[in-house]
Target: Protein SRG1-like isoform X1
Amino acid sequence: MEKPKFKTVQEVVAAGVGLPDRYLQASTGDEESQPLNGPVPEMDIPAIDLSLLLSASEDGREELTKLHSALSTWGVVQVMNHGITEAFLDKIYKLTKEFFALPTEQKQKCARDIGSMQGYGNDMILWEDQVLDWIDRLYITTYPEDQRKLKFWPELPIGFRETLDEYTMKQRVVVEKFFKAMARSLGLEENSFLDMYGESATMDTRFNLYPPCPRPDKVIGVKPHADGSAFTLLLPDKDVEGLQFLKDGKWYKAPIVNDTILINVGDQMEIMSNGIYKSPVHRVVTNKEKERVSVATFCVPGEEKEIQPVEGLVSEARPRLYKTVKKYVELYFQYYQQGRRPMEAALI
Ligand SMILES: O=C(O)CCC(=O)C(=O)O
Ligand SMILES: [Fe+2]
Model:
């Protein structure tokens, strides 16, 4: 098997050769108003009770209103009472840290092949002169089961595979409820989005490690992007901040709230909701002293599915904003490479 051409961030750090130029961001000109490592205000997003969202009670309706308000402004919510115990989430965080702490040779057993996304490696190099993100990751397709490639599922740390399998099944329950809740919050029949999303939808989980970085003013953990998924379930680090969302041209940091899952809308949900729910641009900044981890699961419609605004959200007052797209993720990378917002391709 071909080995990846570039070193992981952990290997760069271990080599002790200083910071390679490939990680240095070009000046964007707006550093003065909001420098990469400067203080940013915290975003004001609600914690939504998932167990209430599908209830017909007064409290349930109130929760749906909160969901609508957060997703149509920020495109992000914290979800609590999601049915996954704190002890289980802690196990995921622990296994993530243990995986990245393994010796390089052990991690390389799950190394990504050149040109493919799945497996262990550094920021994927998609174009020449790309400034690299300060991140190492393990990217695994977890669902449907027949699409799993076990060679990318680490055998160590012990329990990783079983726990990831269990986490996938638990997340599926959350995903279905969340789709139904989003439909209800827009006055639609419960299955409106699920029917379009499809039975063949995939889940990809990405374990992210951001080692301490010598130049947080010049180096970024993940460059600004919006997710190409329908939506993303995220477990941000429980102690170390870093995730920021862009709203009206300003960056805000995501709060850390224990025992919640952060869910952000992705481009394909923005399309299905005819633009009512926003796929937010976000980034991750680096930290000089502390290592940070996160675990993101991307929920992606099946490749054969045609994704478009659902009927109930198109009217004379609100004309259709997006074309029908298929295999959006492929299109996503073509645009991303050109430094363009992939969403542009879907706009009518
Ligand atoms: O590390 C994080 O908190 C977010 C990572 C992210 O945005 C992504 O993986 O798409
Ligand atoms: Fe993201």
Notes: The chain has a mean pLDDT of 93. The chain is about 25% helix and 20% strand.
